[in-house]
Structures are given as structure tokens and as C-alpha cells.
Amino acid sequence: MQSETTSQDIDLGLQGKVALVTGAGAGIGREIARWLARAGCRVAVNDIHAEAAEQSAAELRAAGREAVAVVANVREEAEVARMVEETRRALGDLHVAVNNVGMNAQRPVTPFVELDGDYVRDVLEQNLVATTLCCIAEARLMLAQGRGGVILNVSSGETTRPSPQLIPYGAAKAGINHLTQSIAAELGPQGIRVVAMAPGTTLTERVRETFRQEHVDAIRESNPLRRMTEPEELGRMAVFLASDLARCVTGQFVLADAGAHLSRSRPANADP
Q1: Is 198 helix (H, G, I), strand (E, B) or coil?
Q2: Measured between alpha carbons, how far is 91 from 43 in angstroms, rounded to an integer?
Q3: Other CB atoms within 10 A of residue 240 CB
Q4: Which residues does the annotation mark as catalytic?
Q5: 130-145 and 77-91 are packed helices; what angle lies between their axes, rounded to 10 degrees?
Q6: Average pLDDT, rounded, for the chain
Q7: Which long-range contacts (CB under 8 A, 24 or more apart) does 156-161 make?
Q8: What angle do the packed helices 50-62 and 27-38 form, to 10 degrees?
């Protein structure tokens, strides 16, 4: 007898859902927004730069998707609250939130003994603090709605091994992993799933522009799959984790690093 599941099309459960993606004006965030839109979501595209946010949103609208640009600095609590409320007003109840904003300040590599307080605080705010503020505002709205939801935090493969000269960045992203587990445990009974997605070094536009070819080749050769993660692959993963296909997954840290965590070492001066 043929099972019911094999006689039906696969339903991702994302059609018509509302998704908010932070830092979606470029790079990984933009690709995640694209793939969630392709899966049927109505997407709020956040970026600190209005032109970048609108460009990403306009691209989705040109493809026949529903999208709005929401400009906000996610390091500021009031702006985060406004961003979430603007998303609700423009598109309706929030179902999926992807917290993608995060970077290693303006210095890609810095020896530990050369760090200063301003730099450390900057990296922590851009990563752990910003993600925490977003999670709080998103969870408040989802709880008020009373229908559950999915919060997806973008972490880093740098949390799986020591990260010399990237110590504040690795520590901040490791904090996001613990944050994800703790929120998942607390909000699970209310039907809210929380997952962390951890890219390795990803071939974004910024990486292509700033990395020397020998550096890219070294990273590829250090990975078991002999390749680097592509931004669209993270978009695909985000769709899976946000969808009903992953409805029993919460509190997890999911790597997408071409197996880099299995390597004994990373190329010197490699950026996250």
C-alpha cells in the first residue's frame, strides 16, 4: 500500500508566511531573502543602508514576490523594536525571523595582545548584542501572536575550533550558539523554534573582492570537500530550517562549512 506521504507533493509550509531577514542588503542575507521569497514567503528586507535594503526588496518585487525594505540599525534596541513593528504593519504576522547581521568590525585579523576595549565591544555589539536584541523583539511579537514561529540566527564555523587573531569574533558567535540553545529551551513550549546556522568562509561579493586568489585556493584545499560555501547554499539551508521539513529541529547548531571543522588547521589570516 502506498503511503500518504509518497502520493503528495512536498509542502514546505512557507507559502504566504512573513519572513524578516536582517542584513539582507547584500551577501548572505540577500541570498537568504531571495530563497525565502522563492519558497513563498513575503519578505521584509532589513539593512542599515536604505539604498541596499530597497535594492534587495525591489529585486524580489521584480520577480513577482511581495517584499518591503525596513531600514534599521539592529545594534539599537529602539530601532529593532521599530523594525519588527514595521514588518508586522506592512506584511502581517511574523512567522520567520533570520538574524544575519554580524561581522568582525573593521579589522579582519588582530593578535590577542593588541586588542583594545573599543574593538572588543564593537565586535560583541555587532554580533552577540545585535542578535540578542533582535531575538527579544521577534520573540515578543511571536508570543503575542500565539502561533509559534521560527528564529534563525547566523553564527559561524569559527566557533568549532580555536580562532587565533579572531578571538572576539569567535567568542561573540559562540555566545550566539548558547543564546540559541537557551531561547529554544525557553520558548519551545510556545511553539517557537530557534536554530543557529553556521557558515564557513563563504564566497560572497566581499570575499571575492578582498581575498587574494591564493588565499581562496588555500581555504579550498584545507576543506575535505575542496570547495567553499556559496551564498545560495546558505539560502537553501535557511529555507529548510524555516520550513515544516525541519519542524522537529530546535536548539541546534547547523554547520555549512564544506567540512572545514574537520580540518586540523585553517589558513593563516583567514577571514570568517
Answers
A1: strand
A2: 8
A3: 17
A4: 155, 169, 173
A5: 40
A6: 88
A7: 156/102, 156/198, 156/199, 156/272, 157/198, 157/199, 157/200, 157/201, 157/255, 157/256, 157/257, 157/260, 157/261, 157/272, 158/272, 159/198, 159/253, 160/198, 160/255, 160/257, 160/261, 161/261, 161/266
A8: 30
Report DSSP state, residue 244: G
In one letter, which amino acid is 267?
A: P
Residue 117 lies in a domain: yes
Question: Residue 271 falls within a domain, yes or no?
Answer: no
Q: What is the pLDDT of residues 104-146, one digit of tens each?
A: 656 667 899 999 999 999 999 999 999 999 999 999 999 999 9
What whole-number distance in Å separates Cα of residue 199 and Cα of residue 229?
A: 7
What letter does residue 229 receive in the DSSP assignment?
Answer: B
Q: Is residue 6 part of a domain?
A: no
Residues 6+ apart with CB under 8 A from 12: 39, 40, 239, 243, 244, 245
Domain contains 1: no
Phi, psi of 98 (to 5 degrees): -115, 115
Chain-centroid distance, C-alpha 28: 7
Residue 272, pLDDT score: 42
* pLDDT tens digits, 231-246: 888 999 999 999 999 9
Contact assessment for residue 267 and residue 213, using Cβ atoms and an 8 Å cutoff: no
* Beta strands 253-256; 18-21: pairing state: unpaired
Domain that holds residue 119: 13-262
CATH of the domain at 236: 3.40.50.720
Cα distance from N-terminal residue to C-terminal residue, the chain = 50
Q: What is the number of structural domains in the chain?
A: 1
